[in-house]
Write a structure and sequence with these properties.
By secondary structure, the protein is α+β, with helices and mostly antiparallel strands. About 55% of the residues lie in helices and about 5% in strands. Helix 8 (about 135-150) crosses helix 12 (about 230-235).
Length: about 240
């Protein structure tokens, strides 16, 4: 009986030791076992592992938390421009076109007011032979055609270079150039090259015929298959030469 009581006491003390802290069973029970036996229990090792297994992960907490369940707010859309801006821009363009048309009409009316008789009063005394009103109009038309066909030389330098290179045609000189000495040598150059020439009353009109906004002192319409070239050249050649 004493022997059985001893075993009961040992088992009870073993259970109390396991619950109170880490001990080895061989020290409590008095039985010699190897240190690698499976009966060795480390409570400090078992408890944290159990606690770690029972503790939910941070990812799962974040996944099931009410804050994570909330939908992300949508970005606020930018305000669309007012539809009234497009008609305003179109209106501005229309106003510009109207102003341009009015200016063109005004320029045309101004050109009509500048009659041929008024223009010839401003030409130099040496502007001979001077083209008539009809010939001046035909000359400007021919210059315009030559510009489109790339058969036009403009300015004293360009015309002089073309004549020295042996190019032929018909030459028109502005009679209201000031000072007139700028072009006074060009008639002599034309006569030496047997190129017919004549003066026209306006440098602005001559420049406009050549598709430029700048006044032009002299142009050379090169000989070619231009409509009306032969008629104008023959009329210019038939003008009375200056004495």
């Amino acid at each position: 009986m004493d022997f059985m009581d001893e075993d009961v006491q040992r088992s009870e003390s073993y259970r109390a030791a396991v619950q109170s802290g880490p001990v080895r069973a061989k020290k409590i029970a008095g039985v010699t076992r190897s240190s690698s036996s499976t009966d060795v229990v480390d409570v400090d090792t078992v408890k944290p592992s159990v606690a770690a297994a029972s503790k939910p992960s941070t990812a799962s907490v974040q996944l099931h938390s009410p804050a994570a369940a909330k939908p992300t707010p949508k970005p606020t859309p930018r305000p669309t421009p007012a539809p009234a801006a497009a008609p305003a821009a179109a209106k501005g363009k229309k106003d510009k076109k109207d102003k341009k048309r009015k200016s063109d009409v005004g320029a045309a009316a101004e050109d009509e007011e500048r009659s041929y008789d008024m223009l010839i009063q401003r030409v130099s005394a040496i502007s001979k032979p001077l083209a008539s009103k009809k010939l001046t109009k035909n000359a400007y038309k021919l210059v315009k055609k030559a510009q489109k066909a790339k058969m036009l030389s403009r300015g004293v330098k360009e015309v002089g270079k073309a004549i020295r290179q042996g190019k032929t045609g018909v030459c028109f000189i502005a009679g209201d150039i000031s000072p007139i000495d700028v072009i006074s040598h060009m008639p002599v150059l034309c006569e030496e090259a047997s190129i017919p020439y004549c003066y026209v009353p306006s440098k602005e009109d001559l420049g406009a015929a050549g598709q430029t906004k700048r006044p032009t002192s002299i142009v050379l319409v090169q000989k070619g298959s231009l409509e009306g070239f032969d008629e104008v050249a023959a009329e210019v050649a038939g003008l009375e030469a200056p004495q």
